[in-house]
Amino acid sequence: MSAKIVAEDGLLKGLVLTLDKGEEWIIGRDSHSVNLVIEDPAASRRQMICRKFDDKFEIENLSDHTAIYLNGNEIQGKTFVNNGDTIQFGNTTYRFYQDSKAQIISEESQNEYSNEENDEEPHYSIYDDEEPIDHSLSEVNFDITDTGRWLLKVIGGPNNGAEFSMQNGHSYVIGTNPNHCDIVFHDTSISRQHVKITIKDDDTIQIEDLKSRNGTLVDGNALTEPQTLIPNSIVNIGTTSFVIYDREGEMQTLISPLMPSIVKILQEEEQKPLQEAQVPTTPSFEQAASAPDSETMPEVSEPIVTPPPPSSSSFFIVASVIGLFILTGLGTTFLFYNEPVPITQQYDTEEALKNVLAPYPDIRHSFNSGTGRLILVGHVLTSSQRHQLLYALQSLNFIKTVDDSGVIIDEGVWSEINQIISKNPSWRGVSVSASAPGKFVISGSLPSRAQAEQVLEYISTHFSYLSNIENRIVVEQDVVEAFNVALLNNGFRNIKVEINEGNVSLSGTIPNGTLEQFNKVVEQLKGSTHVRNIRSFVTEGAPEATLVNITDRYNVSGVSTIGSKTSVIINGRILTVGDILDGMTIREITPSYIMLERDNVTYRIDYSR
Predict the structure, then answer these.
(1) Window from 155-159, 295-299, 403-407 with minimum mean pLDDT
(2) Are 241 and 218 in contact (CB under 8 A)?
(3) pLDDT one-digit tens code per residue, 537-558
(4) How many helices (H) and strands (E) does the chain have?
C-alpha cells in the first residue's frame, strides 16, 4: 500500500498526496519543478522533499523563508517521519500515513463499531410433528453488537458523536497515534498518547494523563496525577470532550412541574377541611332547657366565612386584554411609520478606479458592480506599495470586497530566487532585481560562457516570469574578445584588455594623433557590452615609435636624389614616393627610413647611406 500525506486542516483540507511512484517526491507550488503540486499561496514554489529508504521516509525543507513543523516542532535539515505524524507548512496541516491499517476517526465514520459474529448453537423445536429447522439460518448475521457495561461518548470537538464500548479489567490509551493507541481521535490538539483510562474489575475507573502537551481536565480541574474517575464526569483533552457512562448504573427520573389548573384544584381541596374546622357547633334546644338556671347560656357566635381564594383565571384574562392592546398599538405605530429612503450617490466606478490605480500601471482590475467585488491582477515592486494600494481603495464606498490574491510582489520574487543563486559560489556575482513592476533584470559578471549558460538554464527552469526578465549578465570572456576585435579593426594593435567583476582596464600605446578615434571606439564598446566601468591607461607614442618596423624583410641597396625627388632601390626595384611595394604605398622617404602604409597601418624600413 502506498504512503500518503493527507491535508487534515487549513486551506487544502481533504487533499491527498500519494507517494506511489519513485523514491523521491518534491512538493510545492511550481508545477514545472515539483512532483506533487499544492495550491497554497503561503507555501514556497519548492517547499519540501520526501525520500523513501526501504520502509522509512525522510523529509527535508527546501525553502529558506517558510518553515515546516513536524508534530509542532520546526525541523532542521533531514528528518525521518513516522506513521501518524502531523506536518504543517503554509496554511495547511497534513498527516503522514505510511499504510492504511490504522483506523482514523473521521467526521463521516465516527459512529461505526466493529461487529462480532455470535455463533449460536442450533435450537430444535419440542414438537415432533414440525419440520426440522433449516440450519442455514444460523449463518444469518443479525448485527448484534457486543456492547459492554461502560460507554465512552464524545460530546464535543472534531469527533463529536463517536461512541466506544469499554469492558471491565481493560486499559485504554487515547491519542492520535494509531499504532500505540486503543482509541484514536482525529484532533490535532491531542498528543500522540494523551490519556490512559483503566476500568478495574471492582467497577471503578482510573484516569491518568500521559504527559500530554495540552494536559487533561476532569470537570474543569487539571489532572496532575492518576485519580478515580466518577461516571458521567466531563473529560477535556485538547478540543475534544467526552463522558463515560455506566449502562447498568442508577438512572434518575426528572418530573416536569404541574399545570396551573391542577395546582388550583389541589389548593381548593386543602382549604375545605380547614374551613370546616373553623365553624363552631351550635347547642340544641333540649340541651339548653335542661341546663340549670344558675348557669349562663353561652353566646352563639356567627360562623366565620372564609372568602374564596382569588381566581387566577381573571388574572390571565386581564393580562391577555392588556397584551392585546399593546400589540394593537405597536402594530398601528409600525404600520404608519415611514423611514426616509436614503439617496445613494452615483459613482462613475471605472473613472474612480482608474484614478486610484493610476500610480500602479501594471495592475489590471475587474469590478462586478452587482456584488461590489473587485479583482486585482498584476505586479507591484514592494509590499508597502501593495498596502498603499489597498488603503487607497478603502476610500471607494462602492467596493465591498477586494480580491488581491493575483497581485504579485516583485520584491519577494527576486529575494527568493537570489537566495537560491547565492548558494552556488560560482554564481555569487549574479543577482536578479526589478527595474519596474513586472520587469525583472538579471545582471552581474561571470568569467566564462559555460557558467553563464548554467545560470540562464537554471533561471529558465525555476523562474516563473521568464518572459519578463532581461539578461544583462556580462561574460568576461566575450567582453575581452569584443574589445580586441574592435580595437584591431580600428588599427589599435598594441592594446592589452583586462576585466575584473565587470570593470575593464585598457593599457598600451596607440599611434600619435589617434586618441580621439580611440575614445570613440571605447564609448561604443561600453554601450554594447553592458560593462560597469572602463579605465583607460593608453598613451600616445612618438610618430616614429608607432611605426611597424619591417627592416628585416627588405634590403635597401641604393639611394639617389634628383632635385627634390628621392628614389631608393629596394630588393632590386627602383621606387619613389607613391609607388607600391607588396601592397604597401610609400608615403615618405627620409635620410634614415622609408615610411609605408597599408590598411591604415604605417610601416618603416630603416637604411643607411
Answers:
(1) 295-299
(2) no
(3) 888 766 655 677 888 889 888 8
(4) 9, 39
pLDDT of residue 517: 83
User: pLDDT tens-digit profile of 415-430?
Assistant: 888 888 888 888 878 8
DSSP symbols for 226-256: -EEEPTT-EEEETTEEEEEEETTS------P
DSSP 8-class letter at 440: E
SS3 369: coil
Q: Which SS3 state, helix, strand or coil, does residue 208 take?
A: strand
Going by their DSSP bridges, the two strands 73-74 and 78-81 should be labelled as unpaired
Q: Which three cell numbers stand for residue 598?
A: 597599408
Which domains are assigned to the chain? 3-97 (2.60.200.20), 150-246 (2.60.200.20), 350-407 (3.30.1340), 424-546 (3.30.1340.30), 548-606 (2.30.30.830)
Q: How far apart are the first and last CA of the chain?
A: 104
Distance of CA 395 to the CA centre of its chain: 29
> Taking a C-beta distance cutoff of 8 angstroms, is the pair 570, 551 a contact?
no
**Grid cell in block for residue 318:** 386581564
| Grid cell of 274 as nine digits | 380547614
Beta-bridge mates of residue 578: none
SS3 content of the chain, % helix, strand, coil (to 5): 25, 35, 45
User: Which helix (H) or strand (E) segment is 275 a member of?
Assistant: helix 260-278
Q: Report how far residue 316's alpha carbon sits from residue 293's, in angstroms, rounded to the nearest whole number.
A: 59
Helix, coil or strand: residue 289: helix
Q: Cα–Cα distance between 64 and 464 in angstroms, integer?
A: 18
Cβ atoms within 10 A of the Cβ of 96, count? 21
* CA atoms in the 13 A half-sphere facing the CB of 452: 16
pLDDT of 365 > 80? The answer is yes
**Residue 546 phi, psi dihedral angles, 5° rounding:** -90, 0
Are 572 and 562 spatial neighbours (Cβ–Cβ below 8 Å)? Answer: no
Residue whose C-alpha cell reads 464524545 in the numeric block: 154
- State the DSSP string of 154-187: EEESTTTT-EEEE-TTEEEEEES-TTT-SEE---
Structure confidence by residue, pLDDT tens digits, 390-414: 999 988 888 999 999 999 999 999 8
Query: Whole-angstrom Cα distance, residue 365 to residue 379?
Result: 12
162 alpha-carbon distance from chain centroid = 31
Please check the confidence at residue 123 and state whether its pLDDT lies above 70: no
SS3 534: strand
